[in-house]
Write a structure and sequence with these properties.
By secondary structure, the chain is an alpha/beta fold. The protein is built from 9 helices and 6 strands. Strand 3 and strand 4 form a beta hairpin. Helix 1 packs across helix 2, helix 3 packs parallel to helix 5 and helix 4 packs antiparallel against helix 5. The N terminus is likely disordered. The chain binds iron/sulfur cluster (SF4). The site of iron/sulfur cluster has 15 residues, from helix 2.
């Protein structure tokens, strides 16, 4: 919640690239040399999700597959970027937003898809953008910056790069930071406050504009909800610590697999030792199922404790004696 421990700022360059999980595009080419580590939010997030997936994608550089979800998110993002980037004094018409979708449509994830099915995806994207326009046209303020590229030096030869989707001026003379998301559901306020990505952006803002944002927000364009938190709610020191920890683990070659329900969408399952073999006896499948059952058991045990306390307080201990019998 306080000031950063990041190292000295470095010169910035303008470029509209980033490598977010939505797969918009990849980072500028850079290896993961043991000395100089070039990370991004996406890379750190991938490592924290599964270190082995990180190794497959960023160290071994195995190719990933395009998907409808990634291409759809990328297309919406391209349209938003173009619309907000005009920085006109009054809001450009919705047709501009839809034209941006048409011109920037990423077809890679839709190859081989039935035409009607593809049109459904396209129509949904139009609907999402129309809603975005309706939400923002009446309170429109020209953007201060879009896709603002940064290169943040955290010291110890660790650099974090990325680009900030949308920076908007605030009435106080400051600015707010927005990242557009194409998730189906919005996150909660506490999840947004704990966002590593927004903490990185708050650090980057200080480097780019010499000031911290008044607020940061994730704008969930599909449900049409913006979740905003104040700068004081963002833990930039914690973010720097987390990134340094990931960097240390990468440097020491810690790339263990970390199975989770997300394995179902992992491009590298074919290479993953946990998913060798067929059927339900595959260790990765068993581990994911086991984690799910453990989560459910913890939830059930918590609820059982609540119910037992309630029954005990109303009916006494004897009411709990025969719970397992008489079935
Ligand atoms: S399949 Fe799962 S455990 Fe294996 S690399 Fe992918 S995310 Fe990691």
């Amino acid at each position: 919640m306080s000031g950063t421990t990041a190292g000295a700022p470095r010169a910035t360059t303008a470029a509209a690239v980033d490598d977010p999980p939505s797969g918009r595009s990849d980072l500028a080419p850079s290896g993961l040399e043991p000395e100089g580590l070039r990370l991004s939010f996406s890379r750190v997030d991938t490592y924290r999700t599964c270190p082995l997936k990180f190794r497959f994608g960023y160290v071994d550089k195995l190719p990933s597959q395009p998907s409808p979800q990634l291409s759809w998110g990328s297309s919406i993002h391209a349209a938003l970027e173009r619309w907000w980037d005009q920085k006109l004094p009054s809001p450009p018409p919705v047709e501009d937003l839809l034209r941006g979708l048409y011109d920037g449509w990423d077809d890679a994830g839709f190859e081989g898809m039935d035409r009607d099915e593809k049109l459904r995806w396209y129509g949904h994207a139009q609907q999402v953008l129309r809603r975005h326009h309706a939400r923002h046209a009446s309170s429109y303020v020209p953007a201060m910056a879009t896709e603002a590229w940064f290169e943040l030096d955290l010291g110890d030869d660790i650099e974090v790069v990325g680009s900030i989707d949308h920076v908007t001026p605030t009435p106080s003379g400051g600015f707010g930071i927005v990242d557009w998301k194409t998730n189906r559901k919005a996150k909660t306020r506490s999840q947004v406050a704990g966002s590593l990505q927004l903490a990185i952006y708050a650090l980057a803002a200080r480097q780019l504009w010499g000031a911290e944002p008044d607020w940061v927000a994730l704008d969930f364009v599909v449900p049409g909800a913006r979740v905003t938190v104040g700068r004081h709610e963002i833990d930039t020191d914690g973010a720097v610590t987390a990134i340094r920890q990931v960097a240390a683990q990468i440097r020491s070659g810690e790339f263990e697999p970390r199975p989770s329900p997300l394995c179902g969408w992992c491009d590298y399952r074919g290479e993953c030792p946990l998913f060798e073999g067929d059927g339900p006896d595959v260790p990765g499948t068993a581990l994911v199922e086991l984690k799910r059952l453990h989560r459910r058991r913890r939830r059930d045990q918590g609820r059982m404790a609540e119910l037992e306390a309630l029954v005990r307080s109303r009916l006494g201990d004897d009411a709990l004696l025969d719970l397992d019998g008489g079935a």
